[in-house]
Amino acid sequence: MSEPSILVLGAGPAGATTALGLRRMGYAVTVVSDWRRFAAVEGVSQRVLEGLRHAGLGAALAEATTPATRQVHWNGERLQPNQEWLLDRQRFDQALRDDLNRAGVELVEGRVREVEQGQGYRVQLDDGRALHGDFLVEARGRQAPLSEGRLRGPETVSLLNLWQAEPGTLASAVESLDDGWAWMARLADGRCYWQVTLDVMAARLPGKTALPEYCAGRRRGSALVAQLFGEQAFAPAQVHARSSTAILVGNCAGPDWLRVGDAAMAVDPLSGNGIFQSLSSALQAPVVINTLLQRPGQAALAQRFHQTRIEQLFLRFARIGRDFYAQEAQRGTQPFWARRRGWPDAQPLHAAANWQAVRVEPRPVLRDGWVEEAEVVVTADQPLGVWHLQGVELAPVVRGLQAGIGLERLVTQAHQPMVERWLREQGF
Ligand SMILES: Cc1cc2nc3c(=O)[nH]c(=O)nc-3n(C[C@H](O)[C@H](O)[C@H](O)COP(=O)(O)OP(=O)(O)OC[C@H]3O[C@@H](n4cnc5c(N)ncnc54)[C@H](O)[C@@H]3O)c2cc1C
């Protein structure tokens, strides 16, 4: 039998990471992607840089050169400034493709019009070309056709504004507003970026042609904008409107397809974690796909692994966003804030420790390039289970303790302090 061919739709961080991982496993991968049709700047944290390094995306990583100091004005207070790396998304997306080319991944530039499923997949492009593959990875980001959205946050829109100023130092800032929040950044080459995020139902937006003046008017009222950019920011700029509603797709895996990145779960940009979550879902995807293709008997397990991890990741970021919105106490009753401070639920980000609820259960894990079942320790805070703690398998330890065996007989002396600490955190 010939090697299965894999088609990846979309060359953003999720598609590129998945394709590169599959290529390293020896699979024939073709990535088909259009270019992003608007300019954008995005801020990422240190762990995104680690994720890019881990994925082997060296050229993309090189796009993040120096961190910017980010000012945060929230709930009427100036919070401690923090750091973020600013990415020019057009250059970053180009660098992702350079990484793919260097790794020998076949890259087709084009826009996907239709995907037909029969004997494998037939992908029809706008220019008349057609591609075929046995396995399909959907990584077209928010533009991927939506199946039933399992969970959708309050409808949200972001207005991206871009203008050119004199070169200067990198800087970024975020501020809360009565009806939303604004993120702004200045790149070293003088490109300036201001993005306001609003509630679709509550915002009274003018027509498209009046948006540049509407946004400029809003900037004129901000002391932070004046401080970061000067008066040049008060003139109308180029505007692009984007949906930024948080969406978790109901079904992210099938026997011969997988959704990764924003195509599986798109988070609220407030979390600043979009690229991080895209990398997270894509880094695990090659092993899931390998299992689906080579061990069909384990297909259900592999799908469950992918689906549950996507859902857990989404809920974690949704709750982080909720708690950050809830910090804006002064504006809590305004429609934008009121709709977000209670979504997606009232569950705390971290469940309280409870040793009585700790149990050992079989769950899918990643082992040596496959999704397999292993005994893991399930806790209130880790419903997917913990398998290892820095190389120490936890299920035998918990079973032993529950049977009354002393910890000194279950782990080596060297590992005892670390395991004891973990046990205390679980309420032992
Ligand atoms: C307003 C806003 C602000 C954001 N700010 C940040 C931020 O500051 N920090 C952060 O980490 N994240 C941010 N994000 C999130 C981040 O942009 C995404 O999470 C991330 O890019 C998702 O990666 P991806 O690979 O899944 O999809 P994408 O990066 O969207 O890549 C999808 C690729 O598929 C291509 N494509 C789409 N349709 C087709 C088609 N029909 N045919 C062929 N190709 C196609 C696109 O051109 C693109 O290249 C923001 C998102 C929004 C909406």
TrEMBL record:
Top-level taxon: Bacteria
InterPro entries assigned: FAD/NAD-bd_sf, Flavin-dep_Halogenase_NPB, Flavin_halogenase
Single GO MF descriptor: monooxygenase activity
Pfam families referenced in this protein's UniProt entry, alphabetically: Trp_halogenase (PF04820)
Descriptive protein name: Dehydrogenase (Flavoprotein)
Species this protein is from: Pseudomonas soli
